[in-house]
Amino acid sequence: MSIKLNSGFEMPIIGLGVWRMDGKDVKNLLLHAIKIGYRHFDCAADYKNEAEVGEALAEAFSSGLVKREDLFITTKLWNSDHGHVVEACKDSLQKLQLDYLDLYLIHFPVATRHTGVGATGSALGEDGVLDIDTTITLETTWRDMEKLVSTGLVRSIGISNYDIFLTRDCLAYAKVKPAVNQIETHPYFQRDSLVNFCQKHGVCVTAHTPLGGAVANTEWFGTVSCLEDPILKGLTEKYKKTAAQIVLRWGIQRNTVVIPKSSKLERLKENFEVFDFELNEDEMNTIKTMERDYRTNQPAKFWGINLYA
User: Fold this and answer.
1) Kind and range of the H or E element at 233?
2) Which of 47, 104, 162, 188 does the annotation list as catalytic?
3) Active site residue 162
4) What is the per-residue pLDDT across 240-288, written as a single tens digit (0 to 9) for each?
5) How far is Cα 197 from Cα 189, in angstroms, rounded to an integer?
């Protein structure tokens, strides 16, 4: 099951996110994921495991497990490389051992002090606050992103963590329209206005925290996951599915791409088994009542500034 992007390419509606995957575990996890049926992998320079992902992909191709054209590979431009887009993309391609990317995203709509291509630093000023570069506009960054398409390094380009205002601006100045906006969205943070705006204007929405962050965001940010919500319990019993499977199915039925992350082999399989049932309209509306406007991904903890304020 896939969604056709405005660039004309098909994007699998479920993928595997590799955020916080330990380098030593990546190869085994990705190869198992491919055997399960995953064909979409979401990476980022900032995850600091592109090289390990590249080793897994190289083995998958050389062993005949899959062909390059069978997979959809996404990675992202880090904040400190906004003035070095082409070089950063080439650095990611080298680490991933690929000739082209299916999708390249601007990870956050902010340029920060450059710390070296691919270094993905989040340099802080003397005041302990993220050192934001005010000399590079997002339009300038987008123009460089468009060059990646014209030179064949990237098939589709997109944005991540953009609100309605920034998405609208990008649509206005873009010669190559953003194919995707990757955002946090889950039952506790549904963001219907942003999701609907993007879809209305032909921008596919990818949910980068489709399960509300679960254990990972609880550990890092002290947030609460939606998976423990009692509303989901009745649905898990009816469909003989886990809360995670119910929430992923909800995301898919909103026509959003979901990219859950897991480092457990049994969870990889479980998260992929979401195509053998369908929530009815009443059940979709019941989950809609779970909305809390509750963001779980909180980088301000590390940056000393709330960029969402």
Assistant:
1) helix 231-239
2) 47
3) no
4) 999 999 999 999 999 999 999 988 899 999 999 999 999 999 999 999 9
5) 16
